[in-house]
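Record type: ASSEMBLY
Status: queued
Input:
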Amino acid sequence: VHRPAAALGDDLPDVASLRERVSAARAAAEARGETFYQGPSRVQLGAFPPKERWDDWVELSSRAWPRRDERHYVLVPTTCFNCESACGLLAYVDRDTRQVRKFEGNPEHPGSRGRNCAKGPATLNQITDPDRVLYPLRRAGRRGEGKWERISWDEALDALAARIRAALAEGRHNEIMVHIGRPGEDGYTERVLASWGVDGHNSHTNVCSSGGRTGFQFWMGIDRPSPDHANAKVIYLISAHLEAGHYFNPHAQRITEARERGAKVIVLDTRLSNTASQADYWLSPQPGSEAAINLAIANHLIQTGRYDAEFVRQWWNWREYLSECHPGTPVTFTAFQEILAGLYADFTFEFAAAESGIDTTVIAEVASVVADAGTRFSCHSWRSAAASNLGGWQVSRTLFLISALLGAVATEGGTFPNAWNKFVPRPIHTPPHPGVWQDLSWPLEYPLAQNEMSFLLPHLLKDGRGKLDTYFIRVYNPVWTNPDGLSWMEVLTDESKIGCFVALTPTWSESAYFADYVLPMGHGSERHDTHSYEQYDGQWVGFRQPVLRAAAERLGGEVTDTRQVNPGEVWEENEWWTELSWRIDPDGSMGIRQYHESRARPGEKLTVDEYYGWMFENSVPGLPERAAAEGLTPLEWMRRYGAFEISRGQGRQHVSEVPASELTDVFVSPAGRVYTSAPPPAGPNIVPMGTPPPDEHGRRAAGVMIDGVVRKGFPTPSGRLEFWSATLAAWGWPEHALPGYIRSHVHPSELAADQAVLLSTFRLPTQIHTRSANSKWLDELSHTNPVWINPTDAARLNVRRTGDLVRVETEIGYFVAKAWITEGIRPGVVACSHHMGRWRLRGHGEVAAGGMMATVGLERDADGWQMQVTARVKPYLSADPDTARIWWSDTGVHQNLTFPVHPDPISGMHCWHQAVRVRPAGPGDVHGDIGVDTAKARDVYRAWMARTRPAGGASPDGTRRPTWLMRPLKPTTAAFDLPGDRAAQ
Amino acid sequence: VTEVGRWELLRAIGAVADSPAAARTVGPALGLAPVSDADHTEVFVLSTPPYAGIYLGPDGALGGEGADRVAGFWRAIGVTPPAEPDHLAALLGLYACLGEATADTRSEVTAATLRRSQAALLDEHLWPWLPCYFDAVTDGPVQALATWARLANHALNYERPERSAVDAPATEPTQGRLPLALRAAPAGLTGDARLQDLVDALVTPVRSGMILTRPRLAVGAQQIGVGHRIGERRFALRAVLEQEPAGALAWLAAEAHRWELRHAVRGTDAASRWWASRAARTRRALGDSSAATARPDLAASDGAAIMEVPT
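Status: finished
Output:
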């Protein structure tokens, strides 16, 4: 052992005090909002330009090397718009040219912490895309003919405002609809529609996440989980899509941290996804069997007594379950435990193995690992299995059963209700709930649907259930995204069903071709939004902003309209909606204008500065103080840093006691639900969650009695975690009121001998759904979607080598794709990413994105629609020299066109998995060919509708839908009443 | 010594060498006097660039085998090497990260792996050159950074005894063995070296056992009483040797002896012993050369050891 050499000198401070001093100095610098380690540096392996130098950041031009050519930048934060994670971006705006040079991560963002996936920096491609839509366009020929004329914004606004004003004046509120693709914000558009008094919000959620949401909502009254991956001991994922798509970056970095600390990662994914490849346990189950595996693990916890009985006793609604389902049984926890032990006894490892095809010993080992996690068990299920199977919502419901058994709910390393880790600031104006009900989005057949039945819209219109006067799509591409896209095309081109079709979009898309108006909206660095997402146990709000506007203002300029700095006449939605609302109600007589007026200057339009300035000043706790400490207004602070962390360590919110001040005129139900006539506390966070019904005297549900103490509980009718759902039982589905296993529509027993399951839900982490075609870097990374086939299947099918063409036949048609023979998929299953196969119609000239869209011919004959590729992508000349360097020609196949709709009768989720026949392509088959019979699509639609139990018969209280369930743009309570002719049924 | 801030201190020491901006923010926390941008450049760009490749590489130059070896270590532990993998700041930052990750993990297996990685980093890529490097900086003209170097040596010394006390030899198979860079170092100086080889060897630390900086050469020239020619070190050294061979060799031998003592007092670990031995060899070789310059036959020969004419 060596001692420090005496020669080093006694004059030096001792090491212990040096260590403490340096640590204290760093903490103090960071507490002051300063950067201790100035960078970019080598010190922390990842470092960023210190925020003190964001006004004039100097880098050397790489292209000028070896000359030292300095470039000066203003660094402006914004929020990525290319998935729903809302990661922070930092735009490098050249001070001389006032153009964005690049996007990197925003180190001040609490969720992404300076890190981004490939989609973030690719924002640069989107804003410089030579094929983007720059000016308002109006169709000049027939719909879909591909002829356009440039018009002014005034012309577009006046025409649309006149239509909407007339519809509202004539009581045709339900003929106005705005269909959202990528939301990317928290409630702004919904409030615009509320101000118009229409129930016109439609979303893409029932082709995305509503199956996953349903399972969580029936448990906790909140439809999203917030796993604390970073602190977990075991991470259980039934969603490769999640950690390789949405939330990829914020979750992936925290999963990585957990793994560095020794956490185990378990992934259930039939396909070897990126996430699965990093897992400690990769389980490749038979598609649709995931819930059976979950229940086998739950049964293991129950049978071995390795569940948190005290948590279950306190927080499950077992009393309600016993009272309703076991009326002769004493309502004691001991009695419940005895029943619980029998409820899942059939879900043995052997049963799960038989259903899933996974070895019993593997499931047993995984169950043991899960049991060891205790309260540090984080889980997530989003799309994947929950979005793919009949009854897929039971995948997330059974998954959360494991969390609820372990007591791993809102614990460190556990799974939180997302509403506790998300902050939606209250805005300056809050219009009332609309007083109408949109049957085209919320048909009576689906009283429990998690979200709008958006993908059924073509069929509901074909049924003659209504029509649309003005239909907006907003960053949405229904023809390409939804199943059965050609039925969409049929109604979008039918002016008797859709009077005016408006595409609010930054890019061309397969749907925009058929629009009457194509109106250019900004990308992530060209628009304002606020956004918050659950990514760890904390709450933050992010601010998206037009970076050129913010840069201009920081350099002393003034921008009053985002079009002044955006390319062409690209606008931002906030200003657009305000302008449109004013033109619908120019004199305020319709009651609309008041919600778009300045509060500081009555009679004038609300500006984005006032809108967000008010929000940050009044609705984001701690932000005004933080900003003041730096001599900034809250809005200035957000423009400078882009995101603000409101709190960290929310912990077990359900345990918090309800203050005595909220407990007046209290009523406690026999099950312990506590009601009060005291008004709810006015808080600035308006995050969506369930709204438990009041008692018969109208007192609101305020808490739940737990061992004599009134605690906040969960926003469910019972106030507890609902192991048994009274809602499901009362609305016609008592057999599914408990977490359980519903055999999928692609269960092996449902398949013919020559059929396989097609997995179509997985995305690629480098793709942006319908906007990748305008991102050259992403195009180059990923541009095709072969069909994954196991070698044993390939041999059986006589598919000899990777690259051979195969024909995949669905219920309504077929597509032709290339085979990829790989052991990354289990035998009997094939898979194809939904990201590819972008197309533009022959004869549409330069409209569309040349880099990723094949040109197709689309013909209809007696057999239905035939789509054939007439030209593949190739190099071309444009304003961007890189388009002359396109080296690929293969852009994959648009498989979604060949899928019929499969609406789950409870959640409403489209069940994406397909039973298909795969065979080698015939001599006339060409890669990318598609054939679809939309008449057959109608038959499949009707068959699935027959599975439903409509509100007209199932409603226990004369309403269309349980009022407590979450719903975007919830109408007034009166609008929930069944229409007169149905209420009597 | 308390563990609080152990990694932060090392990271901060690295940060001072990273950039003038970093030195401005971190320096006060270390109690250093302000360092001007010019002084920072003088020490970390001109006199003593803080790259392992220079002090452990066979050519005594930036990049090359010395830097590649360090980059290989980053890859071996699964981390993409940064642009300058052998920079002092990057290496101390990595060392600190490994220490923090070890404290953070709940897995004993992971902790053991991290400890081994950190120990290997210290043994192979930090300890073999940093003490010598810090000593060289203390020779420099910038007082604040000389203090920094002494502090750095002081802090680094604590890593050795603590780690040695924690890790048993069984988990530390490399303990007691020379680091690869030193094992693979080219041969040291011999008394019959020709002038160009002598100059090359003297400015290559792993060959000479000493770090001959530009400021130190200036001091030497002054002490010998010859002109110090401004230029690259090889050029300056050669000029000194040509002006006054005997005096220059004697001064260089004394310099080697000074380094020999420095290395010896540092400790008895394998690396320090190796450095001391290498400096002693240089001292002896220079003594031999010095004797040779007294021999007219050699001094008169255009092919003799130190009398080559520059071309």
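Annotation: Chain A has a mean pLDDT of 94.
Annotation: The interface with chain B takes residues 1-5, 7-9, 12-16, 18-26, 29, 34-39, 41-45, 50, 233, 260-262 of chain A (CB under 8 Å).
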